[in-house]
Every structure is written in C-alpha cells, then in structure tokens.
Amino acid sequence: MPSKQLVFSAESVTCGQSDKLCDLIVDTILDRVLAEDRFARVDLQAMAAPGMVLVAGELTTNTYIDITGTTREVLAGCGYNNPENPFNARSVAVLHILQEQSTEVALAVDKRGAGNQGVVIGYATNEAQAAGLDSNLMPVPIHLAHQLTKRLCDIRMQGKIAGLHSDGQVHVTFLYENNVPVRLLNATVSAQHSPTVKETEFREAVMHHVLKPALKGLGKIDTKKAELLVNHSGPFTSGGPNADIGVSGRTMVMDLYGMAVPSGGMTLCGKDPTKTDRAATYMARHVAKCVVAAKLADRCEVRLAYLFGREKPVSVQLNTFGTGKLESDKALADAIMKVFDLTTPGIVEHLNLRRVKYAPICCFGHLGHEGSPWEDTAPAAALLTAAKGKKGGRK
C-alpha cells in the first residue's frame, strides 16, 4: 500500500515583531497585576504604531500598575532602545484607555460561570518520537519554527551578529509520510538588520548561528535537500511598528499548533484565568497531552465549548485520528470526564493559573514549554486507570 504523503508548514515570530510585541506588553501588565492582586479581572489589548502604543481594555483591581513604565520596559527589553529609531522606548507615546469589567460579566464569573464563550482546541502527538527527536509532544513544524525564532532572539541579545535588529519571522515546511515528518522541504528566516550591514555577510552569519545549528537537532528527518533561505526577498531594514502596525491577539495560530489542527479562534494574551480563552486552551492541551503520555493514543485532539456564565462545558469532543486504544473515542472522552474538572474554576485551581507568569511563555508559543502546569502529565496515570474500566479495545 503506498504511503500517505502530506505537507505541513508552520511559522513563528520574534518578540520584536509588531503583533508579538503587543502580546508581550499586555501579558507583562497582566503578570504585574496578578502578582499584587490574584483575583483581579483583566482583559487588555494593545496596538503599536509609529511613535505610539495604545493599551485598552477592562481592568478591575485593588492595586496600581504603572502601565506607561511597564510598556517602556518591554520595548527596551525587546531591543527598541535606540534613540535614533523613531519607535523607541524613551520617546514613544504610551496611551491607555481602561474601564472596569462590566457588572454583568463580573456577576457571572462570581457565580463560577465561564468569563466568555467559545470553542478551544488542544492537541498532542508523538510524531517526533518516530522521527528520532523530542518535541514535548508538539507537532514538529511548530516546534522547529519556535526554536529558530528563539535562537534568533538569543543571538541578537548576545550580540553575535552585527546589525541584527528586533523584528524577525520564520517559516518551515515538512513532508510527512504516514503522519510522520520525514523530510524538511524549506526553512526561511527573515531577520531585520541595520542598513549598514553587508547583505551577503549578514545572510551567512544568520545561516551559521541560527539555521544550521537548529537543523542538527532534527533526528532522522532528512534535511540534505532542504531549501534554506535568509532574507530571500532582499534587504529587511524597516521593521517593527515603524513598518507594520502591531495588534495583540493576531498570532493565534503560531501561539498554538501551527497548521496541525484547527484553531479555536480565541486569543490568549492580556486575559486573566477566568477568561475561557486562556484557561480552557491550556486545559485542552493538558488533557490531550495526558492522553498521549498515557499511550491511549498516538495523536489526540480535544475540543471544548463553553457558554458565557455556564460553569461546565456544553461540549467535549475527542478525536484520536484512528490511533486510540479504546473501543471508541467516546469511551476515552468518558474517562477524561471522570478524571478532569473541566469547569473554568476547576481549571484555574487544577493548573494553578493565578500563580502562572504569562509573559515568559508569551513568545515562541504558549504550549510545549517545560515547567508550565498544563505540560505536566502526572494525571496520565489516573486517566489510564479510568480508561482500563472501559471494555474492549480498538480493532
């Protein structure tokens, strides 16, 4: 029988890319609010444009946070500290338009209801193991894409490439056979740089310090014929909010799983844990990862749907893509319901979300970071026990 071939791509951006910069601003503000007031209600958005940053949204708290100062710190930390740059931490105007959470929403959350409505999707896969590498049960394309952008940021902060600036983007494409990545087809790095650098030398430096070292960790995946590109369309001297308006919440697909599974469409950054967007997205990943860690499936997609003000999800759907070890995915879903509390308050308590620092996981994907509570697979043992109570097995 011929093998089934598919092509999957993924992309990632550096912390200095316009949209991700806005994500980092609102999550840093969120962290500082929750550090002083764990029960604060926060739902913030940010926009970055030439010469200005706007922070807007709902904020109900008993503490005071210097939003202007925090924003400037984030900009400086991401490399926007050159006074010759029109968009820099010292001279940029920081505006904020804030109001308290509405009484109707607050009352629903106080009654243990979901802070908003929507559908979230969680996913885990052991595809990397078959390819001879460890991706923490994340899809390989998004895993490599984030590795490349993180390396690009680290190299900039270490000063190893002269003229490397803050904005950067990565795109990778893999060939899959029978649901396993077997060949890297393309890896592209677009890195902002000073107008004074020599383009050929700059490309060679990025290739040497960023691209080639990351490819060495791809295990059995064939990289010999991969197309490797750096700034393939020409110079990249104008970047960040000077070139592209940034808005928080626009990097949702790369924040999750890339093209591996659909996105629920709900944004994460700037939101406290009572918001289903954030809490349920992390829980869906947690559940899916425990399923795969318990060897109850090779791949697992979890879909949770919530209504505003309702405590429990109105829908829990599971898809193991034919790799499940029980007689049906419904049987596995029943076991999940026995082990995990999927109410919003239950999720917040189980994952201890009021204690999480969100800014450190804002960049390079919200998922797959070791140490995040939703990456813990300790409940896999209890899930396996519950699943054993189900009769039969998949034939």
What's the gist of this structure?
It contains 11 helices and 11 strands.
Rg value: 22 Å
Low-confidence stretches: 391-395
Q: Roughly how many Å apart are the termini?
A: 19 Å
* Secondary structure: number of strands: 11
CATH class placement of the domain at 5-14 and 140-242: Alpha Beta
Name the structural class.
alpha+beta
| SS strand fraction | 15-25%
Average pLDDT reading? 93
Oligomer: single chain
Number of helices: 11
- CATH A-level architecture of the domain at 5-14 and 140-242: 2-Layer Sandwich
How would you sum up the major sheet? 4 strands, mixed
What is the element string, with H for helices and E for strands? EHEEHEHEHHEEHEEHHEEHHH
Fill in the CATH topology of the domain at 5-14 and 140-242: GMP Synthetase, Chain A, domain 3
Shape: flat
Folded structure, characterized:
It is a single chain. The two termini are 19 Å apart. Helix 1 packs across helix 2, helix 5 packs across helix 6 and helix 9 crosses helix 11. The C terminus is likely disordered. It is flat, with a radius of gyration of 22 Å. It is of the alpha+beta class. The strands form three sheets. The chain has a four-stranded mixed sheet with strand order 1-6-7-8. Strands 4-3-2-9 form a four-stranded mixed sheet, covered by helices on one side.
